[in-house]
Amino acid sequence: MRLYPCPVILALALALPLVACGPDDVTLDGTQDSIGGSDEDADTSAGYEPVPARGGIGLEQVVVNQGVDVTIAQDGQWVDAVDRNSYILSGRNTLIRGYWSFPDDWTPRNILCRLEIEWADGTTSTREVTQYIDAVYYPGAISRTFTFDFDAEAVQPGMKFRMSLWEADETGWEDIAESTDAAIVAPDTGLDLIGVQAEPMQMKVVFVPVQYDNGGSCVTDTSQITEEQEQKFIDYLYDQNPTQEIIWDFRRDEPIVRSAALTSISLLHAPLQNMREADGADANTYYYALVDVCGGGIDGAAGIAAGIPPATKDAAFNRVAAGVWLSTSDYTYETFVHEIGHTQGRSHIFCQGGNSAGNDPSYPYDNGHTSVWGFGLNLFEFFSPSTTYDYMTYCQPVWTSDWTWSKSFVRIATLTAWDFESPSADDDVIEGEVLIGLLLNDGTEEWWTAKGGREDEFFSGAQQLRFDVGGESLDVPAAVEVLEDGTTRLTAPVPRTTAPVKVEARIDSEGDSHALNFDMAIPAPWRVAH
């Protein structure tokens, strides 16, 4: 769930540079046709062959950034897979960057950085970029790093690299001592693997607008968002997830129609789950509804996911979420990424003042900060590790951490692999169903069924649902989730039997029985495997 920030907090954020909503001091050098110089091999036909860089300058780090910095060399030493902080995927636009260090007596001058690449088929390329070095490196500025950009098709498994530093000018360095302690070549043992993963990585998203009429003054239709606004949803999701592509389906002509006031954003989950069943959607497809409620949210919530599912096909019913549309704020795109994050299995992350519930205690960094530099390939912005929070926090500004990037990599790789499994007889078996109920703040209840199931431990037993199965009562443990808009969500597995099944009552944690205010004879034919 994503809470809508109160205007007072936003005003304070805009007034304090340390928590500004934008990226940290981003400066982009527009003097080059590409970020990192020529895609062609270096040309030394002019007759001057640079000499190794002098004066104690060295390559402190070499990093790959496809969304977050991943260190591949440190002080000249290649960093192997065990010591990497995250994954690098193939088929995605990529930055390779060198961060320098120099001693106190450094003489400012031009330094050439040479990047050698060798692909698995033996093809090679050498690229060069020159920077005037008069200050410490700063990853938030292209001009204060050595940066090379690679198109997606060039980023392949088996790629090797070596980066080195050279004197860029023909004169001016003769009286400067040669570098002895600093690493001017990385890796210093020769070309070594960048570590590009071979797994196919895709995210499938069905994006559903809502025609909304609350019976009063709020009549809206998010199918009317512009193509540019639609593209920002894609860009925000792509930039913060390790994926090669977003397979996007905007149901502009098939909106959800809601002609009554929403008392919780979670009320949009049922039509989304019905839609995914009617579509016969793949289990690895995410559904998201966008609604304009003429405000920042409902009961403080700007977005709600249908759950935090494991990486199982049965849990596909939980891969739906909904959020509000705010046409003048990027918060609506950030909410989209946050809620999809829940449906990828991510819980909230603590940050001071965020007041989120259900925080993941295993998050490794203090106060929810990302702790590594981030970069948006489409947004074309850098995000500071010290002033940016992981997008699963309730603080701002947000980006993905390397920790979340790694978790998302495993989830996306797992779900994408389902599309490449060998067909089997089990593919035609439909597994179970669940009964879902919302106990809303106004005292009303909404109940429906969805195809699917969850692991046994998900059903806590704090409350139970009583079913009539062929004339006999059966109490089934239910999962109980209190959403941050105050709604209580119950989920219970429907008994798998050929006998007639009806819902009788909800048994609360005190053992008291509450007759359900509907008579549902569950008609689903998928209760029993065919």
What does this structure look like?
This protein is mainly β and 530 residues long. It folds into three domains: 58-193, Immunoglobulin-like; 202-419, Collagenase (Catalytic Domain) (3-Layer(aba) Sandwich), CATH 3.40.390; 433-520, Sandwich (Immunoglobulin-like), CATH 2.60.40. 12% of the residues lie in helices and 31% in strands. The protein contains five helices and 31 strands. The protein has helices spanning 7-15, 227-239, 269-279, 331-343, 402-417; strands at residues 2-3, 58-65, 69-74, 77-78, 88-89, 94-101, 109-118, 124-133, 146-150, 160-167, 185-186, 192-193, 196-197, 202-213, 219-221, 245-250, 256-258, 285-291, 301-305, 320-324, 374-375, 382-383, 389-390, 398-399, 433-439, 445-451, 463-469, 472-482, 488-493, 501-507, 513-515. Strands 1, 14, 15, 16, 17, 18, 19 and 20 form an eight-stranded mixed beta sheet that branches. Strands 26-25-29-28-27-30-31 form a seven-stranded antiparallel beta sheet. A five-stranded antiparallel beta sheet has the order 4-3-2-6-9, with no helix packed on it. Helix 2 (227-239) packs across helix 4. The radius of gyration is 27 Å and the shape is elongated. The two termini are 36 Å apart.
